[in-house]
Predict the 3D structure of the following.
Amino acid sequence: MPHRESASLSPPPEAPTANTPGPRAARLQKVFAGALSSSLQSNSYANFSACFPTPAKYCPTALEGVWKQLNQRLEEECKRDFDKILEERSVVEGLNQWDAFIEDARRSRDRSTGEAPGRPMHSLSADELYTANLAPFLQQAHTDLEAKLQESQRHNQTVLSTIQQQQQDIESLMFKLEAVVKDLEGSVEAMTTGDENTAQALKKDLWAIDQEITASKGQ
């Protein structure tokens, strides 16, 4: 009986990952392009010519041509080296696999929790990412403001109670002052009435004395 090989128990090979840059690979290329552009812009002709004052003075056109060729050569070399590194180390493929693993993990989590799948990070806009990053700080600031507001309300309530107590004290004092004023007014009125009676009596006495003096002169 011919020997038949048993079926292999090893898992099938993974499907090849496309070399088309995914979200993270595209982001990496964008960061590299921005850094290279910034470096080339910093190597301006003014900075370059300052290193060669004599050629800049006597043959500026030739020096500018050298500067342009140098920048062009530098840009080409950097891009070629970067692409070579990406290819040799399978950077794009690795980042694409990373994207796939993260997406699978997110879907598994959503299925286990029963929540609706969230949007991938790379699909969020700049404003949404900015808001998401600020959310914890805004929440903390909101909590701090709430605590300060409650403390301010308690302080205001204490001040209001103090003001109300002082108002009651002032009203009580005013009531007592009004009573004292009324007593003084009564005393003044009594004194005024007594003076009038005394003056009338004194007037009568003076009139009687005057009559007596007149009568004595007539005798």
